[in-house]
Structure formats: structure tokens, C-alpha cells
């Protein structure tokens, strides 16, 4: 009898019912690798738009975990991951953003390459825009060079968390995402921690999904926004939390640079024109 392998698919969402449902639809439409089964763990972080009800109706086999609306991406993914590992020891853990549409052969391509590397690498799926042929999320080479698929698997130093396949071997060595981060930093931090431990990350040779880039200017950098609101937005989970940024930069860049950036980020929120000048 052929061995059956398991993949725990991890997602978190908040008030994006249509996107979440579309993401799940295309996940289940993917060509599924032979002898592999998928189990989905979705954290609904306090949605009020009927996301859970719609998912239950269309995908009754999805494991839905309710959040209180304060988890955001990183902590929501941690809850999804913890729930999965408390269920059983999966062979793989697939991070998937709920606004990402997987292409038909995405799972096959990742599993085939993982098997060829003894399931000891982190594999990153590049995404492109639906409207133009540009990379939106992928892997990076230091210092911050975003990689574009070039037909071969490329090694990268860190990565966005939109489509990421973590083998069980890697999870048991590194563990979960870091709960000190609420929304941002968690995926980048995980890749950097894994690199320091000697793990290799590889970016897919082709695009594996479609996801639009969230490139709107943050409010804390907008001169037309009142200063007190700019500071409040800076510290919000969707901003650029100086405390979380300090933890991240101290860990990966050193305390001296972390201190400088801690003060400079406040200066840029107070005087956004300085940011524009540096850009």
C-alpha cells in the first residue's frame, strides 16, 4: 500500500468573505499530488461579514477557528498552526494568504521539488498581478532584492508569507512564527531565523499564484493626516509598530541600527516630508 502524506493548509482571515471563499475554491481546484491529502485550518478573526457561515456552507470540511478580531495575520497564522499540530503531526504545513489564488499546478510543483530535496527546504511560491505580468510577492536576496521567477528554483534569504511550504522536518527544528509580532514582520522573521539555522529557502521557477500588491501609502506617512492620528496609525498592527520593528531589527540587524531606526521612524511620522526626501 502506498504511503499517504498530509498537508495542513493554514489561513487566517478578517472580513474578506468573497476573497476567502475564492481562495479556498482555487485551493481545492488545484491538481492534487498523488498520495497527498489536504486539511485546511482557517482562523476567522472576528469577521462580521458572514465569512464563517459561507465557508461552512461551501466547504464543510474546513476546520474553522474563531478569533476575537485582535489576532491579525501573524497571530492568526500561529493559532491556525497550533491547532493543526495539536491535531496530528502533518508532513507539511502550507501558509496561504486568503487573498491569494493558487494556480492549477502549484501544489504539484512544490511537492515534487520538495521530494527531490528530501523535504528539508522551505519552498516559496511567487505571485503575480492579475492585471499585468509583474511579481507581487516572492522571496528576497539581501539586502532587499525581490526575486522574479526565472524558470529555475532560486535560493532566497527571506520571503513573503503568501504561499510557503514548510516541511515537518523544518517545523520541528524551528517551531512556529514568533508571537511577538501581530501582523507584519512574522514571515520575514521566520525566513531570517531559518537562514541563520542553515535552512535553504527556494523560490518557485514560475508563478504559483495571483495576488495583488498592497502598495497604498500608509496613513502614518501622509502629511494630510493629523499628527496624532499618524502616530496612532504608526503603532497599529497595520502600521509599522516601532516596538515590533525594534525587536525585529535588533534580532537581525543589531541593537545600534535598531535604536537609530526606532527614533527615525517616529521622526518620519512626525515629518513625512523627510520620508519623501529620502525616497
Written overview of the protein:
With 279 residues, this protein is an alpha/beta fold. The chain has 2 domains: 5-210, Spore Coat Polysaccharide Biosynthesis Protein SpsA, Chain A, CATH 3.90.550; 219-278, no CATH class. Helices cover 39% and strands 24% of the residues. It is built from 10 helices and 13 strands. Strands 1, 2, 3, 4, 5, 6, 7, 10, 12 and 13 form a 10-stranded mixed beta sheet that branches. Strand 2, helix 2 and strand 3 form a beta-alpha-beta unit. Helix 1 runs parallel beside helix 2 (51-58), helix 8 (242-253) runs antiparallel to helix 9 and helix 9 (255-270) packs across helix 10.
CATH class bucket of the largest domain: Alpha Beta
CATH topology of the largest domain: Spore Coat Polysaccharide Biosynthesis Protein SpsA, Chain A
- Show unreliable segments: none
CATH homology-level superfamily of the largest domain: Spore Coat Polysaccharide Biosynthesis Protein SpsA, Chain A
What's the architecture of the largest domain, going by CATH?
Answer: Alpha-Beta Complex
Radius of gyration computed on alpha carbons: 19 Å
How big a fraction of the residues is strand? 15-25%
Number of strands: 13
Task: Provide the number of structural domains.
Answer: 2
Please give a handful of descriptors for the protein shown:
279 residues; 39% helix; Spore Coat Polysaccharide Biosynthesis Protein SpsA, Chain A; globular; alpha/beta; 10-stranded mixed sheet
